[in-house]
Amino acid sequence: MNSRIALTVATLAVAGTALACGSDTINDPAGTSNAVSLASASVTPALIKNVMSGVSVYSMLSSDDVLPGSPSYVFGGSTDGAGLIKNADQTFTLVVNNEDNFSVSRVTFDATFKPVKGEYVLTSDNAKYRLCSATLVTPEEHGFGPLFITAGESSVESQIYSLDPKGGVNSARALTALGHWSAENALPLPKQAYSGKTVVLIGDDDSGAGGGQVGMYIGNSVGDLDNGKLYALTRTNGNVRERDMVAGQIYDVQFKEIPNASTLTGAQINSVVNGFGAVVFGRVEDLDYRKGGTGREVYFVVTGQNNNGVNADNSRSKYGRIYRLALDATDPTKGTVEVVLDGDDRTGPAKLMQNPDNVVATPGYLYIEEDPNEYGDETHDSYLWQYNLTTKELKVVFEIDHRRAATDFAKYNNITGTYATASTSPMGSWENSGMIDISDVIGKPGTFMLGIQAHGWHAARFKGVDGGALRSKEDQGSQLLVLSGLPR
Amino acid sequence: MPSRAVFLVVALAGIGGVIALRPAAHGPSGATRAVSGTLADIAVLDSSLMRLVSAAHHGDASAVRRDLAEARAAYKRAEWLIQQYTPLTARALNGEPQDEPDEEQPRLIVHPTGMQVMATMLGGCEDNNAKAPSLEVLDSIAEFARMARVHIRHVHDQLSDAAITDAQIFDAARVELARLSTLAIAGVDAPAGCGAMRETAEALRGIRNGVRGYAAGSKDARLFDLLASRAARYLDANATFASFDRFDFIVSFANPLAEQLGSLRQVLAIPILTDRRPFVASVNSVFEHGAFEPLAYSAPGTPQSNGRLVALGERLFSDTSLSNGHGRSCASCHQRALGFTDGVRLPALLPAHTAEVTTPVRNTPTLINAALQPVAFADGRVAFLEDQVAAVVANPREMGGNAATLSRKTRIALAAYVRSLTRLESRFDRAVRGETSLISPEERRGFNLFMGRARCGTCHFAPLFNGTRPPAFEETTIEVIGVPAVHGGLDGDVGVFGVSRAPMQQHAFRVPTVRNAAVTAPYMHNGAFRTLEEVIDFYDAGGGKGRGLAVPNQTLPSDSLHLSRQEKHDLVEFMKALTDTTPAHTRR
Asked: Disulfide: which of A63, B6, B523, B539 matches B529 by Cβ 3.0-4.6 Å?
């Protein structure tokens, strides 16, 4: 605790000296003024193209930027799950995963929303696993927090962590009651979903023989992440084959308890849920609940896996699917599931979908981010999709720009670095990731933040930037963008 | 957090058996004691590596060697719980020193880390006069040690946080005994076999300490303790890798220990874990009858087998109507009299009358025990028997059938029939279970060679003698050995690369079973070798590379094994003792 307090003070002190209007000088108890003025702040061009009309793009931060408050800090590669908090002094704190660095960055934005300082709040030595999506838990939304919940996605051994977004460096805590999964994200439902309970949905990104599951944790008080029970999604008819579910149908599901889950290893959790008939998905990735509603309408992404090996029978998705999970009003273990978008229907509305990965559910839309699996049949570079929940219209917001025709092509497509590699696919080897709705936090409606994982961008100066020993050779660069003018 | 802080202080001080590490919330005293003992070993592991780093910085190679040996011994004592709870970290700490392709980006090579890499860099065995490593080498060894210490801290945290039950303790001990009697005595994690026997003894001591907190003084506990201590002494007293009698160790120590552990568990009424897995949780020894559950290799949701399903599968197996008028059935190539193979180099093919055929033509493998592996086909392109059945029936060059009309029930029935061809009752199996007179001295020597100096058992793992890796039996090994084409040069079949697109897996193949090899000639994916003697000569020479072929990424060591004529003979005799082709009976 001591080190935690000391660090918070130090953070404020640095921010205070770096800015003309530090915390000491701002006194705006009513919070009426909004100094946010969106503008690109990065030296790196936005690595996207074919942007939907009416949408403004701001390049906010990349691995090439030097921040005044932390000259030695380098933003890591493969930016992913994130959460943004507004501070009492009108500055902002962004907590964001650097997936392949196995670490978490904390970036301070000044009151105008310009990044001014960065540090690693969790390094590879402490995170230990690949960290993908994440969820920021706040008292306003969830009834407890603030906590940044970030999930390990490296085999059945992985754990899910909780860290204080303003706490000390490397002070994350493993949430052992949430079990061991190859987890993409652990998503607590908002406080209105089930009063007096803590319900967390878990996406299991497992491509192995047992497949990916949708997991659930239920704690019997608000904020209880330690004493609850663990469950996995089954269909009430016992059918475990994902693609036996088709679009246009509604299927009854039940979350079955994994008995004594806290005493089980990850491998045992896998075989227990396979034993009781958990639905076997082709890698469950991100999940989100629809904002502004009951909190019980959840969307989850299955990214898909190739039709060989364990999926030779096509029982799991190949190109990816989006599911809606509607949970019962009083009993979170009951509900229905339906296929909202089916990438495997190559003549259907989502026929161009290439392995969706992350999802944001606003009151009116889903925003779906792609991470193509490089089958070799990709027709485009990774898209951000917009799906209108009312009209069911599916549109492209942007396509990632690999700078194929640009003079700086070689910089972003460097295949000679330590971890660098030529893609097996001509298109779509980069991904966009970790999208969050920041409208309410920065007071600008229709504003989102997301990351570009430019997997071809390698440089020696990006090597091991988190300071940990475990990923000391990781050398990718990545980028954070802000998009405004997107409907919610 | 408090336990973490305590751990670091202890590690820095280099203190060993520290009961203060015992976490308060671990429930029954047996498990608590087992965990705290293991945490103490983990503290020794950490402090040994800390000393190693310092010795490396001082350029003191002999101190580095000593510290690594101490670290490895401490790791082995803690291995049973490290493997149970943190298998990924166990691999990072003591995995095979081999490059692997990245799972998501196959062109990316993941380099190994851990103590085997460090031992390989040091070169030679402890007691050999190995060349002194350079300062650069010592520096990188120190870097690996620092990384290992990060992993060790993590293992400590996970073990401290986990709610470890008595059932887990007994399961972990049972699984570790299986690991020792299949991998450790074969030197799988001991580079060049150095220290394999002594390290196996340390691992046994770890289990012994772990079980000591249970019913100490009772007859069953005393018996287990005595056996474990005698087994460790036997290993220490017979520590020479080349001459260690593995057969005797399994029969006299490993199997009785597993049985005694089971008795103790039963007496204490400690429950068996109920999750379904290949090495059945209720079985004591991996060499026992009924140790394996073929259905654990099926897709989730596959129905339980039964006599009627197997009978239907058996009928369909000989049903030529599946081949769409080509007059073929499964039994055309998988002939029972030949151990369910066809006795020819490559199967006779149907004329290619359809569009492109992309699957390579390969030697017909046996179906006996084909169920006991997590991937099918020599290139591993499918995982489950149901899918393999469908692929062969639909292959226009093999059966020429129609996948679309092949019902799910037909696939399930055929797969159930193949699962029923699980036969682990060879003379060797019965001998290792106690009927020792059933095998000859030559066969026994052959087994010891297979598991020892000839290095066969480091890929064809006991007791299945295929590539299914003990003790979880959930992964298969693929290897590049450089099999020549029949008319010379490296065979052109790219193997696993055709599926994974990982360049380092060009010409890699799934390791097949050696069981029933006496009746399933010819051998290798292309049937290049007609006799077992030819096969042994190939390995003795160091595979394709050892014979002078250019084999990129050969994983088989290319130096000669220098096997004598007698040793080659003994190896062949042992393989002949693995024959069991008796008619299938229906399991369960």
From this structure: B523
